[in-house]
Specification:
The chain is mostly helical. The chain contains 4 helices and no strands.
């Protein structure tokens, strides 16, 4: 059980580090452009590997449900990459936390 909590925590910390990196890159782009620039998760994913993005769309639409791709995943893909990565990282850190024992009060 400790090993699984450790893995969740490490994945969460690495994902939060990627979120910080994406935030710094957005800051650099904003300074260079003299306006606020935030790259979306979809644009970042498309630049890294567009084939896997197309594959994810096909798998979700055909095997899960088309409704999940059209409003839900498109909304997530339009969000800033650093925000999505930070939320996912914090979720994994939360999963890896040590739970307090429940105290029964009489």
């Amino acid at each position: 059980m400790r090993f699984i909590r450790f893995i969740f925590t490490m994945v969460g910390l690495w994902t939060c580090a990627l979120a910080l990196l994406a935030l710094v890159l957005d800051g650099v782009r904003s300074i260079a452009a003299n306006e606020v620039v935030m790259k979306s998760l979809g644009a970042t994913w498309f630049e890294i590997d567009n084939a896997s993005l197309n594959l994810a769309q096909a798998v979700i639409q055909r095997n899960v449900h088309p409704f999940l791709w059209d409003p839900v995943m498109q909304w997530i893909l339009m969000m800033p990459a650093w925000l999505v990565a930070a939320l996912v990282g914090l979720f994994f850190i939360w999963l890896g936390r040590k739970r307090r024992p429940k105290v029964i009060r009489v």
